Amino acid sequence: MSVDVKAPMPGKILEILVKVGDKVNEDDELLILEAMKMENPIYATAGGTVKDIKVKVNDSVDTDQVMVVLE
């Protein structure tokens, strides 16, 4: 079963802290999203392995856009 980690708000990707294949625990930081001039850490919603990263640094994202897929 895969889990989609979605953007909670529109913003820009500042930093990606994981790579495909990394094992993560629930609440581990995955990336940093800049929104409203604030840096917002985005956390894993479940433990698992990073299956896919659908964004790059400097990408703009919309609310509910899938950024990372965990398996």
Give the beta-strand count: 8
Please, how many domains? 1
Largest sheet: 4 strands, antiparallel
Q: What is the helix/strand order?
A: EEEEEEEE
Question: Termini, distance in Å?
Answer: 6 Å
According to CATH, the homologous superfamily is RNA polymerase II/Efflux pump adaptor protein, barrel-sandwich hybrid domain
Mean pLDDT: 97
What is the CATH architecture descriptor? Beta Barrel
Helix percent reads: under 10%
Low-pLDDT segments: none
Please list the strands of the largest sheet in the order they lie side by side. Answer: 1-8-6-3
Instruction: Determine the number of helices (DSSP H or I, runs of at least 4 residues).
Output: 0
Shape: globular
CA-atom Rg in angstroms:
11 Å
CATH topology: OB fold (Dihydrolipoamide Acetyltransferase, E2P)
Beta-strand percent range: over 45%
SS-based class: mainly beta
CATH class: Mainly Beta
A few lines on this structure:
The chain is mostly beta strands and 71 residues long. It has one domain (3-70): Beta Barrel (OB fold (Dihydrolipoamide Acetyltransferase, E2P)), CATH 2.40.50.100.
